Amino acid sequence: MERIERRDPMLCSGHAACPGCMEALSARHVLARMGPDTMAVIPPSCMAIIAGPQPYSSLRIPVYQPTLEASAAAASGLRRALDAQGRSDTQVVVLAGDGGTYDIGLQCLSSAAERNEDMLYVCLDNEGYMNTGAQKSSSTPLFARTSSTPEGKPTRKKNLTGIMAAHGVPYAATASVGFMDDMLRKVEKAKAIRGFRILTLLVPCIDGWGLDDDGGLQAARYAVECGAFPLYEVEDGSRYTLNYSLRPRKVGDYLALQKRYRGLAEAEVAALQAEVDRGWEWLMRLIQAEEVQALP
């Protein structure tokens, strides 16, 4: 595994994140790897609060805050303006939540992917509209209780990485701050690629998920270890690679950490386990198909 290096922080201390926030921790390491020659696009979200109101900012790089639906379009325009100035080496990164990615910003996101715009889009996925009261998004998993689904969400979580891979983009991947070496490797890999790249990072929300104050990292690890959030990457829309193949935990271990699943019936826990198993089998079929095609 890659040794984690100390880098100058691009996210300063004193920001407005909640204590124990996994989003701030994730953004800190992503931005450190991106480096100072980077411009960020941050729509309304928890990350916008963490970054601070303009003209103030907790980031050491320029930040543009567009409307919630327009992140990918704004990043496209920023990229073209930089290219017109001869600044092709300057990176453009979007730091958006799942509400502005899975839902409200999906149209612009899909269009930017179809055009293969040169940007790195990072979705900080806390599985809900946590900044406005923990309402459900299409990233919220089945049965999770939110302020808008107090009896549990009746629909499944959208597969964003699969959707973006279907666009045939150069790079789409999942990552988690609970597996830091893997996350940093993927940031470095995405940084070196040109064209549209997207990373979806699972960032457990202490308040919205009902976690212990120090429970964010444990939840991030359990999500991967039970298969609810598999770590994988897709290159050019077809080459699937699994980055963590173990499943040492049951889904129930992951659910037990979170108050948003408190009181689930055994049948509901079994249904969630079956859903995760089906998703894992789907992913394995794609990976095995790629392995067969690679045989001489």
UniProtKB/TrEMBL annotation:
InterPro entries hit by this protein: PorB-like, THDP-binding, TPP_enzyme_TPP-bd
Pfam families: TPP_enzyme_C
Polar residues: compositionally biased ranges: 135-150
Presence of the UniProt keyword Oxidoreductase in the record: yes
Any GO BP: small molecule metabolic process
Keywords: Oxidoreductase, Pyruvate
Keyword Cell wall biogenesis/degradation: no
Domain Thiamine pyrophosphate enzyme TPP-binding: 65-197
UniProt GO MF annotations: oxidoreductase activity; thiamine pyrophosphate binding
Region (Disordered) residue spans: 135-157
Name assigned to this protein: Pyruvate ferredoxin oxidoreductase
The species this protein was found in: Ramlibacter monticola
